[in-house]
């Protein structure tokens, strides 16, 4: 695609003939796009943008399915709550009424877990026979996982209220809280990774994937052209190379552009190449030129592939 843009630009420039007598040079705009993909494999469930949209840094671009990650986060939070409850009970010391309450909580959690197991088993059978959607099974799985976490929490709480509050036990409970905090942070990060936000201000160029399609880290969902990634590329003859320095100012002119727009040279190739034949005349084709790139002061004013006349200062 990039090569095609360059070829088309050179063809357009060929109608302009040689370099102008005032020393101006022929050039074109090239945008450096970012190809954005999710960090994990998943089905694309949300696409917030379309081609041509302008976005700001931090805008939500797209999301992939996150139901399982949400269930893992809920389980991690439940385990964290259990660890915190264990530590709190150890620090305060158990009382008979606390033990009774812990047993009742465990009984309720076990009953809820058995019911969740039965519902999941029925849903699994229906899905396997084709009488229910897979989404229902995923929902029942999440409920089952949450019920299991509540049983674990209740068992841990009952165990703690029955144990004497020794220093080594309290220290172990504190380490367990740290472990559970880490698990919650990891699950939170994994859930956040299911949504991709714009890393910078720019314009949506191409949409590669649609809602319902599978996206992966190796398959970009869209391409984003950052506003500050437009570069003006032009070729400088070897005889004028001494006038070109990194950081030097240049001016630009193009169709429908504001007059005398400026920029700064940010790249000079260290390798010479033959003059593109459509830019210079037949007699000048034997000359060598060097590729130079300039960063415009107002990159948003230019479009990818747009012909530009560059004047050295």
Give a short summary of the structure:
The protein has 313 residues and is an alpha+beta fold. The chain has helices at residues 2-14, 67-92, 96-128, 134-162, 167-192, and strands at 25-31, 34-36, 42-47, 54-55, 60-64, 195-197, 202-207, 214-215, 222-226, 230-237, 249-253, 261-268, 273-274, 288-296, 307-312.
Task: Write the H/E string, N to C.
Answer: HEEEEEHHHHEEEEEEEEEE
Number of strands: 15
Helix content: 40-55%
State the end-to-end distance. Answer: 32 Å
Strand order of the largest sheet: 1-10-14-12-11-15
Q: Label the overall shape.
A: elongated
Largest sheet: 6 strands, antiparallel, barrel
Mean pLDDT: 79
Question: How would the blueprint of this fold be written?
Answer:
Layout: H1 2-14, E1 25-31, E2 34-36, E3 42-47, E4 54-55, E5 60-64, H2 67-92, H3 96-128, H4 134-162, H5 167-192, E6 195-197, E7 202-207, E8 214-215, E9 222-226, E10 230-237, E11 249-253, E12 261-268, E13 273-274, E14 288-296, E15 307-312
Antiparallel strand pairs: 1-10, 1-15, 2-9, 3-5, 3-8, 4-7, 5-6, 7-9, 10-14, 11-12, 11-15, 12-14, 13-14
Helix pairs in contact: 2-4, 2-5, 3-4
């Amino acid at each position: 695609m990039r090569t095609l843009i360059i070829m088309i630009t050179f063809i357009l420039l060929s109608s302009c003939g040689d370099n102008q007598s005032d020393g101006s040079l022929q050039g074109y705009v090239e945008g450096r796009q970012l190809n954005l993909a999710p960090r994990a494999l998943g089905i694309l469930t949300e696409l917030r943008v379309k081609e041509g949209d302008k976005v700001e840094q931090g805008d939500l671009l797209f999301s992939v399915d996150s139901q399982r990650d949400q269930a893992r986060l809920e389980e991690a939070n439940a385990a964290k709550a259990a660890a915190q409850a264990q530590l709190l009970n150890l620090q305060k010391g158990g009382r008979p009424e606390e033990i009774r309450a812990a047993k009742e909580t465990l009984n309720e959690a076990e009953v809820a877990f058995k019911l969740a197991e039965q519902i999941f088993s029925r849903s699994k059978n229906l899905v396997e026979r084709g009488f229910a959607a897979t989404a229902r099974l995923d929902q029942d799985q999440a409920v089952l996982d949450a019920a299991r976490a509540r049983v674990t929490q209740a068992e841990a709480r009952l165990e703690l209220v029955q144990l004497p509050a020794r220093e080594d036990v309290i220290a172990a409970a504190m380490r367990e809280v740290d472990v559970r905090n880490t698990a919650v942070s990891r699950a939170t990060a994994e859930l956040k990774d299911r949504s991709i936000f714009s890393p910078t201000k720019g314009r949506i160029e191409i949409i590669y994937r649609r809602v319902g399609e599978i996206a992966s880290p190796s398959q970009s969902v869209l391409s984003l052209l950052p506003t500050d990634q437009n570069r003006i590329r032009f070729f400088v003859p070897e005889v004028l190379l001494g006038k070109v320095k990194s950081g030097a100012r240049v001016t630009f002119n193009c169709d429908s552009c504001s007059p005398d727009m400026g920029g700064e040279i940010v790249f000079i190739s260290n390798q010479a190449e033959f003059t593109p034949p459509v830019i210079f005349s037949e007699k000048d084709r034997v000359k060598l030129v060097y590729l130079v790139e300039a960063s415009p002061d107002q990159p948003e004013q230019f479009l990818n592939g747009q012909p530009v006349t560059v004047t050295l200062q």
